[in-house]
Amino acid sequence: QVQLVESGGGLVQAGGSLRLSCAASGSIFSINVMGWFRQPPGKQREWVASIGRGGSTRYGESVKGRFTISRDNTKNTMYLQMNSLKPEDTAVYSCNTAPAFNSPWSLDWGQGTQVTVSS
């Protein structure tokens, strides 16, 4: 089982930046792909971006060019640098893990971190 703890959320004005972190612990040897998800108010959770152990990345269309996903395997931590934030980026951001790209995501979710972008 993997434990995930997200941090770095907050309130920011449109056009601003935030950097989120996701720290993993527990059965970290099983982690290959890590990913960010978000759940806007009143909407379903959606995938944001993923990164493989070797650094390969994938992004959702709505964040491509604005968000950058990265990870530090020595610290078992993943990051999401969010630039040019928009009010529609407001959501609870959570992280998850998977054995490979296109594999099902784990049932183990972190508690999430709130990101609020004001207009």
Overall geometry comes to globular
Number of strands: 10
Gyration radius from CA atoms, angstroms? 13 Å
Question: β content, as a range?
Answer: over 45%
Mean pLDDT: 95
Work out the helicity level.
under 10%
Numbering strands along the chain, what is their spatial order in the largest sheet? 2-10-9-4-5-6
**SSE ordering:** EEEEEEEEEE
User: Mind describing the biggest β-sheet?
Assistant: 6 strands, mixed
| End-to-end separation | 39 Å
Structural class: mainly beta
Outline the low-pLDDT stretches: none
Number of helices: 0
Could you outline the blueprint of secondary structure elements for this entry?
Layout: E1 2-7, E2 10-13, E3 18-26, E4 33-39, E5 46-51, E6 57-59, E7 67-72, E8 77-82, E9 91-98, E10 113-118
Parallel strand pairs: 2-10
Antiparallel strand pairs: 1-3, 3-8, 4-5, 4-9, 5-6, 7-8, 9-10
Commentary on this structure:
A hairpin with a 6-residue loop joins strand 4 and strand 5. Helices cover 0% and strands 51% of the residues. The mean pLDDT is 95. It is mostly beta strands. The strands form 2 sheets. Strands 2-10-9-4-5-6 form a 6-stranded mixed beta sheet, with no helix packed on it. The chain has no helices and 10 strands.
